[in-house]
Amino acid sequence: MVRELLLWHDRRFGHEETARLASGLSPDALARVDTSQPALGILSATWYPMSVTHPMMDAVAARGGNEGREFAMQANREVVPRMIRGVYRTMFDVVASPENYARHVGRLWRRLHTTGERSMVLRAPGEAVSRIDGWTGHHPLACWLTIYTMAYVFDAMGYRHWTVERLTCVAHGGERCETLLRFKK
Ligand SMILES: [Zn+2]
Questions:
Q1: Domain ends where: 64, 80, 101?
Q2: How many angstroms separate the alpha carbon of residue 148 from the centre of ligand 1?
Q3: Which of 91, 117, 110 lies closest to 170, judged by CA?
């Protein structure tokens, strides 16, 4: 998903601004990107270490403030529907109801992340609590990206009216990251 987010960043802020995100990278990390290419040459199906992703997320968060929450919301509003229509169509078909999302989100998380255990509890009609435990690769912006990815996946299921409330976060002294998602059609 890093590539899709950077492509969105290219469109929204221009390529030069995207290239600037790489300015905080160490020489080793910089060798993994190509600032002359769209999305910095980041590939879809390739895993990138935190040494690449964290300094770029730091830059986005520093520019936008509020841990990059606004970026996470705006980017996912466009990126999630596009991904659902594209390469992630099969994945979306698996989770296209709250019950299936809750059932499969842990397995899907492990396909996209190397650390953390994701789970979801549907605690009442229209209320889901999403949890991430042991996420050593946590970054505050990645936390918001996860939250808004979830929200816009529910949106794509037809739950157009939703709110997210982050209950706890390891970046704010929490033992885990926990978000309450309220949703209705
Ligand atoms: Zn968090």
A1: 64
A2: 12
A3: 117
